[in-house]
Amino acid sequence: MDERVALVGEYTWTEQDPAFGGLSAIEVADNGIDFLALSDRSILWSGRLLREGGSVTGITGLSKVTLENGPTRGEGTRNDSEGLARDSDGTVYISFEGDARVARLGPDGVTEDLTVSPDFAHMQGNASLESLAITPDGTLLTLPERSGRVDLPFPVYALDDTGWSIIADIPRDGSFLPVGLDLGPDGQFYLLERDFTGLGFRTRIRQFDADFTNETVLLETGNARHDNLEGISAWRDDSGSIRLTLVSDDNFLFLQRTEIVEYRVLR
User: Fold this and answer.
1) Hey, which of 138, 212, 218, 223 has its CA 20 to 30 A from 205?
2) Residues 179-237: pLDDT tens digits?
3) Cα–Cα distances in angstroms (integers) from residue 4 to residues 138, 139, 219, 258, in the given order
């Protein structure tokens, strides 16, 4: 495949804290240094990326907040946090699986649930709201990891004053499933997808216009090229190029690892 991105670097991230791991989402600031990373056990990490020659070489200033999510409304875990988005004012939003919903992060890690679509209750418990993104006007967007059938597209939900509505459908193509979504400073959506082969993971990144048309496959890897990449953040680097920062979920397993992988979108 004629890849439309170039690998910038790969960094294996380790910490002694037993709570570290399971990272499902990442948000990198415009400066390419400050970041938030979310685990699937309701822990939000913040820190700064150390760089040499533009590539990530380490982490500094790391701290964590354990989310306070309140009582569950239904079946499944309430603490399976998966998607992460931050608006222009710095407010953080988080999407959850199990008890599928989107919440606003308040002081001291307390989350406040936003309105819920009736559709969310019918999504698969471990394959619902993996992805979360936000537009410049503050519109939140999410989509499930699974669409329900292999011949059904993935519905994109948007939240406005009247609640959630489906604004687009993303074609389901092959065995890849969406796990991360971000809107880049170029006005393009970047969708991170993964495929578990039984022996490892494959990664795909698709790019869309703001209305989720004009699909372009930027990257499709072979098996085990990277670990279980689940989070994506799009930002513009000093050269003016769009940089895609990806993070992997190690599932708290010894055989897996937490990686930060970066690609540059080619012009």
Assistant:
1) 138
2) 999 999 999 999 999 999 999 999 999 999 999 999 999 999 999 999 999 999 999 99
3) 29, 28, 7, 25
Return the number of other C-beta atoms located less than 10 Å from residue 230's C-beta: 27
| Ramachandran bin of 168, using left for φ above 0, alpha for ψ from -120 to 50, beta for the remaining angles | beta
Count CB-CB contacts under 10 A for residue 227: 24
Supply angle C-alpha 258, 264, 266, rounded to 5: 150
Amino acid at 172: R
Give the residue among 255, 155, 124, 130 at the shortest CA–CA distance from 201: 255
Yes or no: say if 25 and 231 are a contact pair by the CB < 8 Å rule.
Answer: yes
pLDDT of residue 151: 85
pLDDT at 1: 46
Q: What are the beta bridge partners of residue 86? A: 92
Domains of the chain: 5-265 (2.120.10)
